[in-house]
Structure prediction request, 371 residues.
Amino acid sequence: MILPFFYTIIMHKTRKATLHLHDGRTFHGLSFGSENPVAGEIVFNTAMTGYPESLTDPSYHGQILVSTYPLIGNYGVPQPIHDQDTGLVANFESESIQIAGLVISDYSVEFSHWAAKRSLSQWLKENNIPAIYGIDTRALTQHIREHGTMLAKITFDDDIPWYDPNADNLVCMVSTKEMKTFGNGKYKVTLVDCGIKVNILRCLLKRDCTVKMVPWDYDFSDDGSDGIFLSNGPGNPEMCLPTINHLKKVMETDKPVFGICLGSQIMALASGAQTYKLKYGHRSHNQPVRIVGSEKCYITSQNHSFAVDVSTLSNEWEPWFVNLNDNTCEGIMHRTKALSAVQFHPEASGGPTDTEFLFDLFMEQIILSKK
Prediction:
């Protein structure tokens, strides 16, 4: 029997590639993406499915993604489908691949799925994204867990400099450059795009909303909307100072505000609390969270590097959800105002939709504020 890795070497022309970690460790494998070197921050995701959604998630901008699931590419990649009414891509989370590079154990050369139009390899090459397989991703993930997220690079022949994406304002890179309006619903929601996953917008539109999506630094403090929604996004939340300052003004009013992921961290910073970087972050479809003060638990989809320091919350705020794996903060809420946010992704895509009801809670807050 020929193992899949060696079958690929025999049947398909491949090029050797090397993954370098900033602490000096190296892993050797073969290329199946674009053959240009890249540098960034290496992170891992434990999801078993959903690579088209994950690779197009703007929260991964600047990161080299390691998939811990051993077989990737087996169901190919679908053709982008756009909604006729909104123009939004219906089966990805943005219009292009957002990761800097991809690292996997075994690449499935032969793919099979009714919706697949091309291979993962072809899609990566079309987007100029390097990818490497034949890596012991179990050993690599254990190394990252022990030593923490670090800088990394994928090279072929020539070396390139290290690059720390967290030194740049990644939100500015992925946010919309102009205001856009979607839908024609009863309730007017301003959506602050810090690197939004499109499914957040889809979830709002199916709840009778007119959504005004604005750039990350847009002044939304007095825009006449019924509510403010803060999206997910990449990088250090402290770099979103304009967003934080605009939010501080809104928080002095009674307007409902809800945040997801980076939006949760921005809300915490606007409240006067602090955030910190996790050792290796949360990236998966199976993160268990519990509502604080209850035994009610949910399985959630997550993708973040930073978390809210609960000990720095003022008396006006309280933790809402807690992560059952490491007890980190998974949500915050104001004690008297309609201000709340979660660290996980209730819109999922990919992952479980157990917590999509949080969009309904946000809409209920808007309805109550209008009475």
